[in-house]
Write a structure and sequence with these properties.
The structure is a single chain. This protein is α/β, with parallel strands linked by helices. It has a single domain, classed as NAD(P)-binding Rossmann-like Domain (Rossmann fold, 3-Layer(aba) Sandwich), CATH 3.40.50.720. The chain has 8 helices and 7 strands, in the order E-H-E-E-H-E-H-E-H-E-H-H-H-E-H. Strands 3-2-1-4-5-6-7 form a 7-stranded parallel sheet, with helices on both faces. 46% of the residues are buried. It binds nicotinamide-adenine-dinucleotide. Nicotinamide-adenine-dinucleotide binds next to helix 1 and helix 5.
């Protein structure tokens, strides 16, 4: 078990699913943990600070509040996200795009922008939640997938920019995880679709994702930065082809001159 003894951590989206599992694991490892979420539901032992991560002032206020007790924060997990799936490019609305990026991308940017101000001179840890769909092209999930690809790339840019401050910046790219995000959708077609295509043949438990965050938050991960780590049962390594519609050979055939 990695120790986070004496560390102060802020976890966005800590009220449910992956974030809740991270909060529990960080508490068990000895950290003081603040959960920043739209919801004030909170794991016992953690401190709830309600905020919308897409609102820069609210997120900065959370970070300032979390830093006020010990004068700094050590770990920031930018995890809050929304997942509008099942939308083809031709059906995406301006509102879908805007809200997806406001929460999933802007929220991470605001964390990377303001978190370092509260981190000690000896360094800090920023860990973002990307997704396997941010590493692969997927049908009917483009706004979400592209937002998660942006998170992966922002992670690399921030890792380079913040390295002189000894702040490491990494991301975890989960496969499909059995959280309310996924299980609250009646007959969610993603569950059989992804299960069938995952080399390990099953979906993830939130604790299996949280374990990667614990490692990245620990002192032992001091030399890991700019990494986007898939924790996905192997799905980003290779999977069966999508059930795409049959190819129209009249369109795809190579034209001979
Ligand atoms: N569940 C999956 O299969 C899966 C896979 C890959 C990545 N992810 C990512 O993991 C993260 C957590 O997802 P989850 O499955 O635990 O979802 P979840 O719905 O169980 O939890 C998400 C939490 O984020 C909070 N939240 C949403 N919008 C917010 C906002 N604007 N400000 C503050 N809090 C907000 C919600 O209130 C909720 O508590 C998300 O970024 C998601 O995109 C999930």
């Amino acid at each position: 078990m990695f120790s986070l003894s004496d560390k102060v951590a802020v976890v966005t989206g800590g009220a449910s699913g992956i974030g809740e599992a991270i909060v529990k694991m960080f508490l068990s490892a000895g950290a003081t943990v603040y959960s920043a979420d739209l919801s004030d539901k909170c794991v016992e032992g953690a401190i709830s600070l309600t905020a919308d991560v897409s609102n820069e002032e609210q997120l900065e206020a959370v970070l300032a509040e979390a830093a006020s007790a010990k004068g700094h924060i050590d770990i920031l997990v930018n995890n809050a996200g929304i997942q509008p799936l099942g939308i083809l490019f031709e059906d995406i609305t301006t509102q879908d795009l805007a809200r997806t990026f406001e929460v999933n991308v802007n929220g991470v940017f605001y964390g990377i922008k303001h978190g370092p101000k509260y981190m000690p001179g000896t360094g800090g840890r920023i860990i973002n939640t990307s997704s396997f769909v941010g590493l692969l092209g997927v049908p009917a999930g483009s706004a979400y997938a592209v937002s998660k690809a942006a998170v992966a790339h922002a992670t690399k840019c921030a890792a380079v920019e913040l390295a002189p401050k000894a702040i490491t910046v990494n991301a975890v790219a989960p496969g499909t995880v059995l959280t309310p995000f996924v299980t609250n959708i009646p007959d969610n077609p993603e569950i059989p679709f992804v299960t069938q295509r995952t080399p390990l043949g099953r979906l993830a438990l939130p604790e299996e994702i949280a374990a990667a965050f614990l490692f990245l938050a620990s002192d032992q991960a001091a030399y890991v930065t700019g990494a986007v780590i898939p924790v996905d049962g192997g799905i980003a390594a290779g999977w069966e082809a999508y059930d795409l519609p049959p190819v129209d050979e009249n369109i795809t055939k190579v034209q001979s001159s």
